[in-house]
């Protein structure tokens, strides 16, 4: 089975409520979609959102990389030699991890279809259902408390709280408000998105520990490139510290792990360049005894389906952050993973189990 055609489309879907972090405010979920067709008629799907403040990838750069760099390499290639295909994609250009991830997803979708297996089974099949958290965007303490209550009432028992946008004192007020509103049975994770300085991070986390706010983990408290600072925070507090933006590649994961700079690693396909490299990161972390979370950007259920298949396949992946599709006004995907509250289940169909994707705004193929 060989790759016969690659189509690229854009989609834009409004969010139900603006998504606010220390790095950006998002009103629309915008991404590039990949439809890869094999010579036997099978179709594989991929998606790459433009998260320029994190990955550096815009819609235009993703689209250009796929159309002008990756497609000429891939047409006519045998999907049974998918290692060659994915290696050629990673070697073709520096950067554009999001575009690489979209192509990677489509390849794995097709390969698993050929094998007649759902992708999570093809990759290892450790779990057949997972549970996602739900993210509370940065707003006033009162609004964040109200949002948290609404998500808990909808059945979510793990909340990921965005912080790092304002003074740390205000962040603590936000967490106090949320904890007082949701009680002790709900897990609270914090994500500072690089928004804190090292000393302020240590001071604030210790203060929250002393206040008994019971924070499960703090994600990426300091700048992505400050591995020494990340380690300083990890060493100084009891709360688990998770590396996110500090780890794109297996090499970066190895540095963080060798220096014991974090207790956990957050893997995202848009950072790693897809499932192939994400598996390597997870395997390295597992050898060091460090558990991983798999998360997502503001992606549709297409990309989240691929990430969820990967996450469910591995024992060492113990936390899941896949709420982005639940934030969108429209669902553009037919098939794929299903949500039953916080529980995500997988289709029995082979591959990703995606039957079709409906683009918003009348976007069509550009190649």
Tell me what the structure shows.
- The chain is of the alpha/beta class.
- Helices cover 38% and strands 24% of the residues.
- It has twelve helices and 16 strands.
- Strands 5-6-7-8-9-10-11-12 form an eight-stranded parallel β-sheet. Strands 1-2-3 form a three-stranded antiparallel β-sheet. It has a three-stranded antiparallel β-sheet with strand order 4-15-14, covered by helices on one side.
- Helix 9 links the parallel strand 9 (240-243) and strand 10.
- It is globular, with a radius of gyration of 20 Å.
- The two termini are 21 Å apart.
- The model is unreliable at 361-367 (pLDDT under 50).
- It holds the Pfam family MR_MLE_N.
- Belongs to the mandelate racemase/muconate lactonizing enzyme family.
Brief synopsis:
Belongs to the mandelate racemase/muconate lactonizing enzyme family. This protein is an alpha/beta fold and 367 residues long. 38% of the residues lie in helices and 24% in strands.
pLDDT average, as an integer?
95
Sheet with most strands: strand arrangement: 5-6-7-8-9-10-11-12
* Uncertain ranges: 361-367
Percent helix range:
25-40%
Q: Beta fraction of the residues?
A: 15-25%
The major pleated sheet works out as: 8 strands, parallel
The succession of helices and strands, N to C, reads EEEHHHHEEHEHEHEHEHEHHEHEEEEE
Family: Belongs to the mandelate racemase/muconate lactonizing enzyme family.
InterPro entries: Dipeptide_epimerase (IPR034603), Enolase-like_C_sf (IPR036849), Enolase-like_N (IPR029017), Enolase_C-like (IPR029065), Mandelate_racemase_C (IPR013342), Mandelate_racemase_N_dom (IPR013341)
Cofactor: Mg(2+)
Pfam family, one: MR_MLE_N
